[in-house]
Amino acid sequence: MIAAAPWLVPLVVFAVALALALGINAAVIARRPTRDSAALWTAVLVWTAGPLAALVLYAWTLQLVDAAWWHRGWHPLFDATGLRLALPWLPPLDLRVPSPVGPDGLRLAHPEWWALAIPFVVWLAVLLTRLVLPAPVRAPDQARPGAWLAGSAGFENSRRWVLWALVPPLLLLLLWSAPDLGEGLAQERAAPWGLLAVVAITLIAIAFSRGPDAAAATDQAGAAPPAAPGDWAAALRGAGFAVQTLCRLPATEAAPESREPGARALLDQWPFLRERRVAPELIEAVADLFGPDATRRGGRNRLILAADDAGQLEALAVAIQLTHLRLELVTLVVVPQAPAAFAARLAPWLPGPEAIHLPRAAVPIDSTAMAWVLDVGTLSEQLADLGDNPVLLGRIGLTVWFDLDAYSGVRAANFWALSHRLDRLLRARGAQEARSLTFARDHRGHEANFAAFWSQLLPYDYQPEERVLVARRRPHPIAIHLLEPGADSRPPDPANPDPGDPSLAALRASVAAGWRTRFDPPPTLDLVRAGDFLQQQVGGHRLAERLAPDPADAAARILEVGAAQVLALADLLAQGGRALTALPTHQVGLLAAPGNPYVRHLLAQLAQDPEAFFRRVRRLVPGVPQPAIVRRHLLLALREMEAVASGLLDTFQWRDAILDPVLEELANRHEIARRDVRFLDDNLVLKVDTGYRSSAAQYRPGPLDTVGDQLVSVVLREAGGALALLQRIDPERATIVAYPRRVFQVAGQSYRMNPWPATSAAAIRRAGVLYCTRTDDPALTWRVSEPRLRRTQVDTRHNQVFLDQGGLNKVVIQTWYEEEVTGIIEVRPERHGALRRSEPLWGEPIESLAFPTQGLLLRFLAEDLDEAPAALHSIAAALGQVLAVHVGVEEDAVLVMAAQGLKVGRRRESGLVILDLHPQGLGLIDALNDDDDLLRRLLAYTRDWLAECPCAAAAGCPLCLQSPPAIAATRHSVERRLSRGEAVEVLRRVLGG
Known about the structure:
- It holds the Pfam family MZB.
- The chain has 6 domains: 8-100 and 107-220, no CATH class; 232-248 and 475-535 and 542-617, no CATH class; 253-469, P-loop containing nucleotide triphosphate hydrolases (Rossmann fold, 3-Layer(aba) Sandwich); 627-694, Arc Repressor Mutant, subunit A; 712-774, no CATH class; 784-991, no CATH class.
- It has 35 helices and 34 strands.
- The strands form 8 sheets. Strands 26, 27, 28, 29, 30, 31, 33 and 34 form an 8-stranded antiparallel beta sheet that branches.
- Helix 4 (111-132) packs parallel to helix 7, helix 15 runs parallel beside helix 24 (627-640) and helix 24 packs across helix 26.
- The model is unreliable at 136-143, 152-156, 177-186 and 213-227 (pLDDT under 50).
């Protein structure tokens, strides 16, 4: 029968293999969440057809070149006796063809069957191997596996067009017995026929590799939360947490896709913009910024105001690539801190990690990268090098300022000068087509003072058409819960260590319940200890592998909320789960940061009236120039590029009253050189001015959280005597930020200050160094100090203002501040996550340096205080914590103290003094003095908080006046001489209500 119909064997083999392929294809589609098997069949085709085609071509080449080589056994095909390879310098390989014995006693050999079987055996082996191996995980920005062969452009997601590619191999298959297929033995024709057969079968499988609902499933692949996660709140309660649902926010209507041609072109070129539902306003802003000059709205600078995680990273990645592709230039991205972590979040949306370079001191800048990502401190150090290298400076085509809101107080004052220095260099030596992007939150309401904030910090004058407001949307319903650790907060698995930190325990419970969770480490958490904790197994996977890389990818979120975050929750949480398409509710677990109980009070108000809570904003303080900061940045600016006095005044907008004395001082100290210059201005008018250039051999810029030049180094003293510089601080603030036994964090690691070698900061300034050691102690510390004011005078530049019918008035004062540190208070988390406060640890008193600063004196009427001796100290302890929430300054940058009998000029005054704890002051007092409504609100918030506290104790409780920072404020509060009732009564008299 076979002899009569020689085509029967290959036909049966083809049919069986095709049925097997279609069956496997259906099974794979049914099991895969993507409903797509293209990656499988593309790999099978490549690894099968490639080697086999090479072998067949090799065999044909041997026969065509010299038949003698074929007969010597150098071909890779079976002949009548088997496969025999006798290559030079290698032992011969001889595989005999098994053949049955015929009726006449002779063996019947069918070598063509073996030649036919080889491609099918290889194909089946590759297919089974590919099924066993796990599918490769693709990044969100990467193309779909197999898309290069199994694409469907123009065919409405169908792959049936692949069937047209079957025409050539099928026509050749039908020519099985035709002489056109090749002369010679049958096995010579069977080998290519088998190869064509497996290619045809694989192409048929690719044509049917996409399930009917694959289009929707592909968008969900890698983005949907784990299947059927458990009850999130119940899981946290099961882990020992008290869970209070503060509010539930409904989802808002999705934004329609942009119809602008430029934005639609970006959506088509970078599909992840559509897949991750990036805000259309962001896409339109990037498209407009890089569009033709004739159609661009406004200039080449954009200020984008949006909630966090609305798609800023994805839009920035597109802007970086447009800068590279269209301008052939580099993007400079400046972040407040942690540039490596920021680059890791940005990298998935760029062609590869090599597209990002992290500049560091003493390391050459990679000019081939698409983007340079660095923090403001590194930029300050690198700016002089950029100024000395015009080629690198000319490579910058886009400057990006990310997270503008993070700068406030002393960092804002330094950032202001730094941004103007960079803009000055770019205008003089940079690319003409350079652009800028600034990302900030949408601060609604004039109370935030955001317009004055950005106009002072940045060198750009944004016109209305250059400001992009992204509507605040919620892609999914949000449930916000308050998590409080209980006594039974224990690890569910005894084999896993107890995390100690409640945020880690909450994270583990959320992940164990099947929720892909975003974890924002608290600022006081030791990241080394947290990294060890994240290596434990949960559900058969490492905990670190189950975390969401961004809030947009998270079904749940664990977040510790402190003074800087509580009023920003609307922006922090709105875009949770944005990139997920099937998420019933985005779960958020909030933990109140230890130290400021007013945050806990505000979260309770969120439960009562969410709309009123979200209307509150934080007042931003841009910082003002003061002589020490002006001196620092003036030296750096003149080292980067010479300037005339009028140019410095125009660039930095410093007042003549500050700039002229600093220039005179630096010239007298021979740190700058000056000369008379003449030049023509823009109107061709001859001008005469004084030119300045730096004559200092070397000048090392200070950290951006300092103001002076003569700094004290905080050095890590390790075992064996090795030393490592951790910080540099202002000596005037040594007792504030580096007091003995203080626990602090640098780069995610915890350190404790060693005892001081002297009892005065003056001796420390002369020594220039303080030492610390590495610690695993998770303690939080506050200093116990006695503040003192000397040489206090009324600032005659400001008028005295009476508030609330004369019961309270304010006046700005100039004073000298000093303090005596007498001990510390430590707080440690218990095993179950609750906090245990120690009694004050007393030590030998340490005197600080005295420094001049500004203050705001709030005078109370004597009759309001006569019968309430503890009122001022109690109000001061509470107002300090309220002010840290509602005004954007660091908690250690401001002090509220009670003043009783304070000598101001020739008078004795009683009241509250709000002090700026930086030498010379940085604008905090001016911000408070200029806004009477803000002062009234701060006092009213303090009154309401103390009045609504549920405690019955006269001296208050840990939820109001007995918190660690309130107790440590002065020795008066340490001795428990506080009264919640007296404070409320006095504030009611002054404010009413």
